[in-house]
UniProtKB/TrEMBL annotation:
<dbReference type="GO" id="GO:0019199">
    <property type="term" value="F:transmembrane receptor protein kinase activity"/>
</dbReference>
<feature type="signal peptide">
    <location>
        <begin position="1"/>
        <end position="23"/>
    </location>
</feature>
<keyword id="KW-0808">Transferase</keyword>
<keyword id="KW-1003">Cell membrane</keyword>
<dbReference type="GO" id="GO:0045087">
    <property type="term" value="P:innate immune response"/>
</dbReference>
<keyword id="KW-0675">Receptor</keyword>
<dbReference type="InterPro" id="IPR057097">
    <property type="entry name" value="LysM_RLK3/10"/>
</dbReference>
<dbReference type="GO" id="GO:0005886">
    <property type="term" value="C:plasma membrane"/>
</dbReference>
<keyword id="KW-1015">Disulfide bond</keyword>
<keyword id="KW-0812">Transmembrane</keyword>
<dbReference type="Pfam" id="PF23577">
    <property type="entry name" value="LysM_RLK"/>
</dbReference>
<protein>
    <submittedName>
        <fullName>LysM receptor kinase 1b</fullName>
    </submittedName>
</protein>
<keyword id="KW-1133">Transmembrane helix</keyword>
<feature type="transmembrane region" description="Helical">
    <location>
        <begin position="251"/>
        <end position="273"/>
    </location>
</feature>
<keyword id="KW-0732">Signal</keyword>
<feature type="domain" description="LYK3/RLK10-like LysM">
    <location>
        <begin position="167"/>
        <end position="210"/>
    </location>
</feature>
<keyword id="KW-0418">Kinase</keyword>
Amino acid sequence: MKPIIKFRLSLLFLLLVSQSITSESKCNKTCDLALASYYIRPGTTLANISKVMQSNVVSKAEDISIYNIYTILSVDSVQVYTRLNVPFPCDCINDEFLGHTFLYKLRHGDSYASIATTTFGNLVTEEWIERVNVYPRTYVPDSVMINVTVNCSCGNGEVSKDYGLFITYPLRPDDTLESIAKYTKVKGELLQRYNPGVNFSQGRGLVYIPGKDENGVYVPLPSRKAGFTFKLTRELAILMTIYFCHLARSLVAAGICIRGVCMVLLLAICIYVRYFRKKNGEEESKLPPEDSMSPSTKDGICTTFVLKFLA
């Protein structure tokens, strides 16, 4: 291979690797679950909350009560002017921020303001609802479905690794840093570090505070291996194949057995694919049922192919 061609191919390879890294989500981390602190007003029932905040983790009142074992004595009645923790999925939305989008069907008399302050208990703002919908706040037709996106947090390992489940907590006029620290039994200094620059006494806005799971305990931040997140794109996989083939040819020209070179490359690719599939859990979620194979079958294909190649 001519040096200039080899240089261009190597440069293109590095550029695609860089693109695979930099095109990753802007969300620093993701988690499966978050909690929303819902303020109970007169007339609110647990059944209504479960309908408003319905998701793949909440379909009935009992799904909420298990996260409030010390405050809910019966699913048929809840104490007004208190807070309940409602579980909801914490997703990376549009690869931009952490949150979850609920679908809400408008009723006559609803407005973005009433939905934000009353229906969703200040977990969102009127401006935020308008931003994630096509209808302006001045004209919202009855009976249409709108998006209500609630933000969430997955924690921060640089602050503490002791907390991995977080509550999206709307501040109220009677809240202070000291009162929330007493409520959570988490040091105020730590709460402030999770919410830098936020005045906990401002009476409005959101903060993110550690929450307890269904067993009533704080869960630690899941351990993560050091290093960046790598995404093997289709384009990168194709280019890697071309690159390795040319590399093999160069090694052969240097007097190295092509069969040995290709065997090593094939083994490396098999190990690479197996590692990243296991890490990202993509084989079960992305393949249709008819194409799915057990991990042992996939490993067997790689091994069989290598053995036949060497025969």
